[in-house]
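Collaborator request, handled under Task 6.
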Amino acid sequence: MSQRIKQFIFLCLMALSLFSTSASAEGIKIKTFELEKADNDWLLNATFQIELSNGLEDAVQKGVVLYFQTEFDLTRSRWYWFDEKPAIAQRQTRLSYQPLTQQYRIASEGFTFSARTIAEALQAVGSIGGWRVIDGNQLDAGKSYTASLRMTLDLSKLPKPFQVNALNNRDWNVSSDWLRVPFPPAGASLIKR
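Structure tokens returned to the collaborator:
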């Protein structure tokens, strides 16, 4: 092979690796996870890193409201039957853009927040503090459990034309992986990951 063809192939491979790195940066990642005991209940504190594709950011700027669903499960494995789920909690956070004030609005469980930039708005969407997820009366202190957490973009809440687009475009399928952490109810009053 000539030297020019080798250089061209090398440049193409470099461009592909650069593109794959930037494409993998989009999505949702769990940065911190913490369960703390308060009285008899357990509260969840977590932060997510949310990076939207250019298409999703543009859609928000044009008035499409995004709904992020945070899910928490507490399970106990059983060899003789399906896994027991003593605690299941879901929380929805709404992200919208107000063109008149040029601000992003975040709403979740009666809490509202305004942000000037999309980065601030996504940081607010990805911050969870003091969310009561486990009632201590549901737990058996002698058994071990697994706590699971994830966040997804709820595509079912999008307007119908965007739902069809989301089926064909993986940029719209934004979610984190499940984070699974062993949870012993007896003993520690703070579990971090």
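The cover message to the collaborator said: "DSSP finds four helices and ten strands in the chain. The beta strands are 27-38, 41-51, 66-76, 84-98, 103-108, 111-115, 127-135, 145-153, 179-183, 190-192. Please let us know whether this matches your experimental observations."
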